[in-house]
Amino acid sequence: MASNGYRNGTGTNKGAIKPPASSNIRSSSFKSRLPPSSNHSPGSALRRTSSASFTTAAGGDGVPGRVRVAVRLRPRNAEESTADADFADCVELQPELKRLKLRKNNWESETYEFDEVLTEFASQKRVYEVVAKPVVESVLDGYNGTVMAYGQTGTGKTFTLGRLGEEDTSARGIMVRSMEEILVNVSRETDSISVSYLQLYMETIQDLLDPANDNISIVEDPRTGDVSLPGATHVEIKDEQSFLELLRLGEAHRIAANTKLNTESSRSHAILMVHVKRSVLGEEVAIPTESDKSSHFVKPPKPLVRKSKLVLVDLAGSERVQKSGSEGHMLEEAKSINLSLSALGKCINALAENSAHVPIRDSKLTRLLRDSFGGTARTSLIVTIGPSPRHRGETASTILFGQRAMKVENMLRIKEEFDYKSLARRLEIQLDKLIAENERQQKAFDDEVERINLEAQNRVSEVERNFTDGLEKERLKCQMEYMESVKKLEEKMIENQQKHQHDGFMKDKCNGEGPGFCEDIAVIKKLLEKETHMRKEAEKEVNKLKSQLGQHMDAGAGGDAEILKLQIALEDEVHQKKKLEEEIIILRSQMLQLTFEADQMRRCLARGGSGNAYPGLDSPMSQVRDSLSGHKTPVSALFDQVGVEKILDLLESEDANVRIHAVKVVANLAAEEANQERIVEAGGLTSLLMLLRSYEDETVRRVAAGAIANLAMNEANQELIMVQGGISLLSTTASDAEDPQTLRMVAGAIANLCGNDKLQATLRSEGGIKALLGMVRCRHPDVLSQVARGIANFAKCESRASTNGIRSGRSLLIDEGALPWIVQSANNDAAPIRRHIELALCHLAQHEANAKDMINGGALWELVRITRDCSREDIRSLARRTLNSSLLFRSEMRRLRIEL
Ligand code: ADP
Ligand code: MG
After folding, report:
1. Taking all residues of the chain, what is their mean pLDDT, rounded to a whole number?
2. Residue 672 belongs to some domain of the structure
3. Contact residues of ligand 1, CB 6 A cut-off
4. Of the four, 141, 485, 753, 798, which is 20 to 30 A from 358 by CA?
5. Residue 154 annotated as binding?
6. Which family would the database say this protein is a member of (predicted)?
């Protein structure tokens, strides 16, 4: 055995330390951390031959990590202090040299070297830091880890591992400290920790968290070689307190038989398994799809889950059977304990010597610990020894066990799985966002097209009108001027003729040509010239007009150019839309591909029989309705550009189509809270109410009512609506409209008003409640749901006012005769209607003034039903509380022998 140990030569060779007998042992510190997993260079990883490995399926890349061994000496106890008073301790520690001397007799001793030598004065904190902390840190990084205590009964294994340290925090053992460290380092949102606590006793595995579960079998994954215990209880750990309670519970169940050596000693192996599951984001990976050329496409980083396991083992006492003084059944028991322990020893020997066969299957303990020795886990062993020279033999064998374990080399490896579930979830959200954005853009696009068409039509007709008017005016002017000129000319001619006749007569009389005739001719000539000049002027005027006409025509052509520009913009929009649709198709195909891959993976795992199959993709679709925050919707952007006044002006347009479009746009804008104030300020509410009054078209009325319902969500608007006589208009519409969608909008608007504490009395006196109830004649579920919401709102406000002492007496709803419908609808098939009515009943029942009517109207039965059948726990308990706090209901229930 000497060749296996780090000890000096016995006897004469005192003081000289032999060099390590095996190259497996390195000088690296006990605390050395692993390199970060992302930097692993696959080529640098050492590989163990499978024959020398505890784990048969441990192939692949990893980092070498030798099993680290520390020795801890327990201080003398009271008995030893008396009984061994005259004797020296059987060991002498040299912690600074990491050496331990085992005395053979007064002259001779053997020296052994360990990774850590912990004296009887070593604090629990220090023991945790040198033995367990590096392992826990590895587990947090995604590696498996093992911390195991080995030693004779009574030497402090449980003290080292399992102390809870409730009275004295400095006494906390490795189990408690490890969990503290894990809890501090994991994220509550994305990571999870669960614990199983087991006992291996007489080759039977028992569940310390559920003692009835006393024969748990070990399952090995033939593909990965992973060992799991599917039958064991797993408890999720959220805080340290729950973990401590769990340890206490486990300890209470642990079989501890008395032995000669220590009354508290245990002959079972206690195994605590901490399962750590952490989410990590890998590098961004391109998901290969055919259409993956698009560079602007967002590729989500690859989500990974790291599953690691920390195994803490408090072994049974390593002493030989006869020492424990057992007999009969106890002897059988001791043999069984020895079976697991000796199998562990054999496996460690085989691994230390690189033997071809490692007898893992010989015991349950070695099967459970296959990953801890020669596997992929980071392992620390603490061997505990006592000082008494009487137990020198046991101490020596414990030391040799530790020495052999130091030669076992593990190959540490991270287990990462691709987190399909979270990737699918993220893609779904992205897809939903894109769909919503596409819908919004489509709407804005339609509105924009309508607006542009309208604008273009208006402009063309205006240009046409101006042109025709101008032309007509000019034509008339020319005609008049022309006629005037002709008239003047005719007059002149008549005058001339008369003059001529008279002059001829005079000439005949005078018998000769007088100078007067020639003068006349000159005058006529002048007149003619003047006329010619005027005609030329008129012609000029006509030409001028013609050129003006040409200019108008050009202006018309300019308008055409603008329309052309708008058309190009439109085409751009169409192009954009197409691009978005293409992106959605790409995303969908990715989703399909992923679903397919995940399915395949699941099937493959299922075939492999693994206990930890990938989680399915069956999570419900996340509903993401929010637009990208901080971005204006296209409708709002349009709103900014066009201006609210212009849009409202269109509500009064002569063209019915324009009015319909305009009211739709206003309704859309009113749906966004940010626009409501501007709409109301610009008189939009008044315009919409006017539209309701001057009803001419069902669409206009429906859309106007919808817009009013949207504005009525805001408290300030609710008061304005009342002041402007909105409730009587809504009531009139409620009574004469037939269209269910119009009624739904009106009911929605009134339901919003019902939720305003200040308006209760006015609503009732102006007929609002009657109007609301009147609409149930239309049996459409959408309308009924709004009516139910209005009633629930009203009842809530009343209940609040009663509680605050502002009102008293019976509910106005009961006064208005709403109770029969409420009772009748309490069990409606449609969930939204039922839910509102259930709440309304609970609010009404909170006030004793309503109780009598409610009992007479059958509402008590419905409330009792709600306490039993309602699917929502909060409403069930609200109904129960309400019923229990009413004297009248309680006595009626007693009378009817109803028990909640
Ligand atoms: P084991 O689990 O190995 O049988 P225990 O942990 O039950 O041993 O320890 C036996 C006794 O010795 C207990 O009373 C324990 O409190 C005490 N003991 C063990 N180790 C130490 C130590 N390092 N310092 C003080 N007391 C110790
Ligand atoms: Mg113990």
Report:
1. 80
2. yes
3. 74-75, 77, 151, 153-159, 262, 264-265, 317, 384
4. 141
5. yes
6. Belongs to the TRAFAC class myosin-kinesin ATPase superfamily. Kinesin family. Ungrouped subfamily.
